[in-house]
Design brief:
By secondary structure, this protein is of the alpha/beta class. The chain folds into 2 domains: 107 residues, P-loop containing nucleotide triphosphate hydrolases (Rossmann fold, 3-Layer(aba) Sandwich); 80 residues, Helicase, Ruva Protein, domain 3, CATH 1.10.8. Helix content is 48%, strand content 13%. The protein contains 9 helices and 8 strands. A 5-stranded parallel β-sheet has the order 5-6-7-4-8, with helices on both faces. A 3-stranded antiparallel β-sheet has the order 1-2-3. It is elongated. The termini are far apart.
């Protein structure tokens, strides 16, 4: 991994290391996701032939899975689509990503078979989920037992440093130069999630265009107020 920082007095210097994501984007690394990054970087020397990355929506599970896919030449399947064809796909590559096992598994028997094949053929199976297997309803007892025996690798909710860095990148993607104190203000007062960061940056962009001004603290405060109002409305429904 390499460290990198933005230059220029108007830019927020990033203290976090960057990891080249082997695609157009960089993946920002912090203590909240370092364990999952280490898992991907540690392949093929995994202690088990299967791994589960668990984290909230928008935390970067699919991004990291894609990094591993490119490194391992794995195929990618949604868990809800699993059927017998997944077995042939795995046997052809010996590596497979199965995403979102918490959102429904097309065939629990097939997933159990894939776990057995990964061990028998020295392959690797990477799964992603929003919750740990112990919190999932799984009908097939053998699969339930096997999944619960795999220690989940957690992506924790992002810390403030990661949120700040993500917001700097999101603003830069929109070609917006935002003062460091504005980013820090947003990070301090917002919901601590990647989804909220994405929404707030988009709101700041829209408001700055409507007001024909830079993204100032006043614009940031307006975006936060709108976010809070929308959350309150959803909770009232």
């Amino acid at each position: 991994m390499t460290a990198r920082a933005n230059s220029g007095p108007e830019q927020l210097v990033l203290a976090l290391p960057h990891r080249q994501a082997q695609e157009a984007q960089d993946f920002l690394v912090s203590s909240s996701n370092a364990g999952a990054v280490d898992l991907v970087d540690g392949w093929p020397n995994w202690p088990l032939h299967a791994a589960i990355v668990v984290g909230p929506s928008g935390a970067g599970k699919s991004h990291l899975a894609n990094v591993w896919r490119m490194r391992s030449q794995a195929a990618v399947l949604a868990a809800e689509t699993l059927d017998e064809t997944a077995v042939a796909i795995f046997e052809a590559r010996r590596t497979l990503v199965v995403e979102d096992i918490d959102r429904g598994i097309g065939s629990e028997q097939v997933l159990f078979h894939l776990l057995n094949l990964a061990r028998e053929k020295s392959g690797s199976l990477l799964m992603t989920s929003r919750v740990a297997p112990g919190e999932m309803v799984i009908g097939l007892p053998d699969l339930r037992s096997r999944l619960r025996a795999i220690p989940p690798v957690l992506i924790e909710p992002p810390d403030e440093a990661l949120i700040r860095s993500v917001m700097v990148k999101l603003f830069a993607d929109r070609q917006l130069v935002v003062e460091p104190h504005v980013v820090s203000y947003l990070a301090l007062h917002m919901e601590r999630s990647m989804a909220a960061a994405t929404r707030l940056v988009a709101d700041c962009d829209r408001l700055s265009l409507a007001m024909q001004r830079k993204v100032t603290r006043a614009v940031a405060a307006a975006a936060l107020a709108r976010e809070s109002s929308e959350v309150d409305e959803e909770s009232d429904e």
